[in-house]
């Protein structure tokens, strides 16, 4: 056809004046262009139907990205044609629409369905939808993308409306404003994350990309995978503890296997029993917990002859809504129909009946109330700090853990590496493990899951280390280097090794962490490498350098974005000079799980300190959920604690500690002053909000004192001395001298020249005199009774106080 048109054009050139040629050409273009657009759109709709057929056959999903220069009615008309074309193959489908206000209002003119604003994305966590219209016109928050896309079931279509590919290279989303550290602005942001996102999207299978303005394909549908089939569900026959009706609620054979494992849950050889269920996101592990719970209730109710108390612990109540939905179905099938549901802010938190009380509890509360539970179920265990997990489950007879390995809610194997290994060392616990492979909402090999995991780096893995690498580490052949961010986000191997360490080593990861490091101008990556492989990942932020105007706003209560340590020092210590100083906040430092405790983290930290000093920075610090293990690491590297949050985080159940180290001589006195004031406050907080702080953590914090704190020396008169003498000679009890002992101990720990106590004595001294714990809560760690250890410890403190007077 093009050849004939060319011959016609040459003929016209020979017989017509030149101006007539252009006139005729324009008229021909006006006539042909709509026909061409119609043919291209028709080709798009045919492509959609072909993709739908393949996706439905393989139980997969696919995406159509419509690129446009702005939100206009014609883009929604095209999206509607795409959706209608899809439904001709897939049948009637309900549409989920997610976007911002303008997008939603325009979409309502063309579509019916469920409309959700981006800020409400967490509310659809765990829901299932068959089609999605997604607003990408102003970018997206990566945490939201994971939640939204994973609600779409097999055979589903995702219609995304967004900018042209070249616009992603300079696109700064509105949510970037929430992350940018002051005094920087969005003009300082480089959208490396979006650049990689569109590049990887154009390379991914299962996605059609179409230029809606020029009506042409940018990328056609591709799928090279083999036809997938789900493993046939086979419910076990014969006599079973768990009813067949419950088995029929299972959507995969993996879930059936979980129920089979629970058939022997109460047949334990050891005193305590734990089941650990692991899976990637969307494998049905939370649902199967709800399915099996009525069986657990039934068995325990027969023995206890009272309502069974089940505590369900998770980082957020949203995380367990799927559990409660399946629990309600399973209760009916178990014959426990009469139950009452309690909700909070539209979320189920309690299901109560004459058989059981099943209640969601935040980690902080679970630490306190764990002893009241007959069974503890911990969902999304990877999202809870390891020391908190240990406190929640220590001593429990029946525990069930469910955790995500890769996912958008907070993933990681810190649970497996740090918590589970410790639990396995307990000889009184029998542990059974099971891993779920089969996805629930869609089939194996789904290209959209692969795309989502890729663009959000959910499946990043650290480098595989061999014997040569281990030998090089032992010999100290390590290198430390700053990483160029442009190079990093164009080098998939380097990028995945770096973030793979975080996935394995940290208990809480978010896709937004990737964006903060990639895009924010004051965030930088460093690494320790061996033989070119990353073995320690370090993420820092430059803070400080705050001007007078912003400082005044901070003093009046304003919280600047990103300036965490300067803001804390100003508001808690009223130091107006510190925010002007420039420093490094270590956002994250993590070592490859295979080579922990080999000095790699300390090596990286010392080299980072050298780098910061060489760049004339004033201080280096960090904030972290405190545990004895982490605190030892920072103290070993000469960092000083300057703050602890008196309240535990409601989600993770942890206290956050801020540590600081001076990089210049004249800053050292500033750090010492902050540390001294901190210890003074800590001595008071330990008998109030920090009464439940781990004693080992309290000891480390108190031992960090560098300069005597301003705690008054107690004036102990003659009568009080005689009272102490009776106690020391065994004639009186501690309870009769506690009013004298407590200020004495507080004064002791406010001094750098305090007496030497052994570990057992110090644990009891702090627990009883500073944290005011009852005797039954105090562990001595040895054969000597706690009250005898306390007597010895107080005798040493008194001799130190009274210059050798032994009474």
Automatic annotation (TrEMBL):
EC number: 2.3.1.193
Binding residues annotated for acetyl-CoA, in chain numbering: 589-591, 629
Keyword Methyltransferase attached: no
PANTHER family: N-ACETYLTRANSFERASE 10, RNA CYTIDINE ACETYLTRANSFERASE
Keyword annotations from UniProtKB, A to Z: Acyltransferase, ATP-binding, Cytoplasm, Membrane, Nucleotide-binding, RNA-binding, Transferase, Transmembrane, Transmembrane helix, tRNA processing, tRNA-binding
SUPFAM superfamilies membership: Acyl-CoA N-acyltransferases (Nat), P-loop containing nucleoside triphosphate hydrolases
Sites where the protein binds ATP: 255, 441
Protein name: tRNA(Met) cytidine acetyltransferase TmcA
Limits of the N-acetyltransferase domain: 499-615
GO molecular function per UniProt: 18S rRNA cytidine N-acetyltransferase activity; ATP binding; mRNA N-acetyltransferase activity; tRNA binding; tRNA cytidine N4-acetyltransferase activity
GO cellular component terms listed in the entry, alphabetical order: cytoplasm
Function: Catalyzes the formation of N(4)-acetylcytidine (ac(4)C) at the wobble position of tRNA(Met), by using acetyl-CoA as an acetyl donor and ATP (or GTP).
Domain of life (superkingdom): Archaea
Gene: tmcA
TmcA/NAT10 N-terminal domain mapped to chain residues: 40-211
């Amino acid at each position: 056809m093009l050849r004939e048109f060319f011959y016609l054009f040459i003929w016209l050139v020979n017989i017509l004046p030149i101006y007539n040629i252009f006139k005729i050409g324009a008229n021909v273009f006006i006539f042909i262009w709509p026909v061409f657009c119609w043919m291209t759109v028709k080709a798009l709709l045919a492509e959609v139907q072909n993709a739908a057929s393949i996706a439905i056959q393989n139980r997969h999903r696919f995406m159509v990205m419509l690129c446009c220069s702005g939100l206009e009615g014609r883009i929604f008309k095209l999206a509607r044609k795409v959706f209608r074309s899809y439904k001709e193959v897939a049948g009637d489908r309900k549409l989920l629409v997610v976007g911002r206000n303008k997008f939603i209002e325009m979409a309502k003119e063309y579509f019916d369905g469920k409309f959700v604003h981006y800020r409400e994305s967490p509310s659809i966590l765990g829901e299932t939808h068959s089609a999605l219209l997604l607003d990408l016109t102003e970018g997206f928050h990566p945490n939201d993308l994971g939640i939204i896309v994973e609600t779409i079931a097999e055979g589903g279509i995702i219609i995304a409306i967004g900018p042209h590919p070249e616009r992603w290279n300079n696109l700064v989303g509105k949510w970037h404003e929430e992350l940018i550290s002051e005094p920087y602005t969005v003009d300082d942001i480089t959208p490396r994350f979006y650049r990689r996102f569109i590049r990887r999207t154009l390379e991914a299978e299962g996605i059609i990309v179409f230029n809606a303005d020029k009506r042409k394909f940018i990328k056609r549908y591709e799928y090279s995978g083999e036809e997938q089939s789900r493993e046939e569900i086979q419910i076990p026959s014969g006599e079973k503890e768990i009813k067949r009706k419950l088995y029929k609620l299972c959507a995969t054979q993996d879930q059936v296997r979980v129920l089979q494992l629970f058939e022997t849950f109460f047949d334990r050889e050891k005193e305590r029993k734990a089941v650990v269920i692991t899976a990637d996101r969307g494998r049905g592990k939370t649902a199967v917990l709800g399915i099996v719970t009525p069986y657990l209730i039934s068995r325990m109710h027969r023995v206890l002859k009272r309502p069974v108390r089940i505590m369900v612990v998770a980082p957020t109540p949203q995380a367990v809504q799927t559990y409660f939905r399946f629990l309600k179905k399973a209760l009916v099938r178990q014959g426990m129909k009469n139950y009452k549901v309690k909700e909070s802010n539209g979320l189920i938190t309690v299901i109560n009946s004459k058989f059981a009380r099943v209640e969601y509890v935040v980690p902080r509360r679970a630490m306190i109330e764990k002893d009241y539970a007959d069974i503890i179920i911990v969902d999304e265990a990877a999202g809870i700090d390891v020391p908190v997990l240990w406190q929640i489950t220590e001593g429990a007879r029946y525990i069930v853990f469910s955790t995500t390995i890769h996912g958008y809610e907070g993933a990681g194997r810190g649970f497996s590496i740090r918590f589970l290994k410790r639990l396995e060392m307990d000889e009184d616990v029998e542990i059974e493990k099971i891993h779920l492979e089969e996805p629930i909402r869609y089939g194996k090999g789904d290209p959209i899951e692969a795309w989502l995991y890729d663009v959000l780096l959910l499946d990043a893995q650290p480098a595989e280390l061999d014997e040569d690498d281990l030998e090089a580490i032992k010999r100290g052949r390590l290198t430390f280097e700053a990483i160029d961010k442009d190079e990093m986000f164009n080098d998939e191997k380097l990028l995945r090794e770096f973030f793979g360490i975080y996935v394995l080593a940290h208990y809480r990861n978010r896709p937004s962490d990737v964006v903060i490091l990639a895009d924010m101008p004051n965030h930088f990556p460093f690494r320790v490498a061996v033989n070119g492989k990353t073995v320690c990942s370090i993420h820092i932020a430059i803070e400080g350098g705050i001007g007078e105007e912003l400082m005044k706003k901070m003093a009046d209560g304003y919280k600047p974005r990103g300036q965490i340590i300067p803001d804390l020092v100003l508001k808690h210590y009223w130091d107006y000079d510190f925010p002007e100083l420039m420093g490094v906040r270590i956002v994250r430092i993590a070592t490859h799980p295979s080579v922990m405790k080999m000095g790699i983290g300390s090596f990286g930290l010392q080299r980072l300190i050298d780098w910061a000093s060489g760049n004339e920075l004033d201080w280096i610090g960090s904030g972290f959920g405190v545990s004895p293990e982490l605190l030892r690491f920072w103290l070993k590297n000469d960092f000083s604690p300057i703050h602890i949050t008196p309240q535990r985080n409601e989600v993770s159940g942890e206290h956050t500690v801020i540590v600081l180290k001076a990089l210049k001589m004249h800053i050292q006195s500033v750090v010492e002053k902050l540390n001294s004031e901190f210890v003074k406050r800590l001595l008071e907080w330990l008998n109030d909000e920090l009464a439940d702080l781990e004693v080992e953590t309290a000891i480390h914090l108190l031992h960090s004192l560098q300069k005597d704190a301003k705690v008054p020396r107690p004036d102990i008169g003659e009568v009080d001395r005689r009272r102490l003498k009776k106690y020391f000679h065994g004639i009186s009890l501690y309870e009769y001298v506690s009013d004298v002992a407590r200020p004495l101990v507080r004064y002791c720990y406010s001094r750098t020249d305090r007496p030497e106590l052994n570990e057992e004595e110090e644990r009891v001294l702090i627990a009883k005199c500073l944290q005011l714990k009852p005797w039954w809560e105090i562990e001595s760690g040895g054969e000597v009774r706690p009250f005898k250890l306390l007597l010895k410890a107080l005798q040493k403190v008194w001799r130190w106080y009274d210059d050798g007077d032994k009474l």
